[in-house]
Amino acid sequence: MILKNVFYDFTKSLLMRTKSPLTGEKLDERRRELRMTIPQLARRSGVSTATVARVLRSESTVAIGHVQAVAEALGMTVELRPQVSARSLVRRAARAKAVRAVALVQATSALEGQGLSKAQLDAMIDRTCDELHAAGGKTLWAE
Asked: What is the pLDDT of residues 62-97, one digit of tens each?
């Protein structure tokens, strides 16, 4: 689930998903600064009035092309930049996957009366994380 949320933008490349309403707020602030109505913005951007309203509310299923069209009509740009480094994202993903894998092993071991100590679990998580990181994309990003 964590990986799905982190990579939603990449797997659904035509959709924009924002964690905060900042994008829509900035666009709406600019619209108001220009004293432009939503129907006027819709005409200028070539996007329907309903879609412009969704863009301004930062709804999660707005096509990035619509956001770009609205931004350009307002004399703004859409900038896509990393929130975290690729290395950091890979390490987080590897750790999350390692924790899930080790939790499954721990659950099975506990059922058999062979549960691991916290130190053993931490060591196993670290080892699994390193192995996933070393294995590369196919193993790391597979569900």
From this structure: 899 999 999 999 999 888 788 889 888 888 888 999
CA 126 to CA 98: how far, in whole Å? Answer: 8
Please tell me the predicted confidence (pLDDT) of residue 75.
95
Measured at the alpha carbon of residue 41, what is the angle toward residues 38 and 43, in degrees to the nearest 5? 115
Domains, the chain, ordered by start: 7-73 (1.10.260.40), 86-141 (no CATH)
Asked whether residue 20 carries a pLDDT value surpassing 60, the answer given is no
Instruction: Give CA 119 to chain center in angstroms.
Output: 32
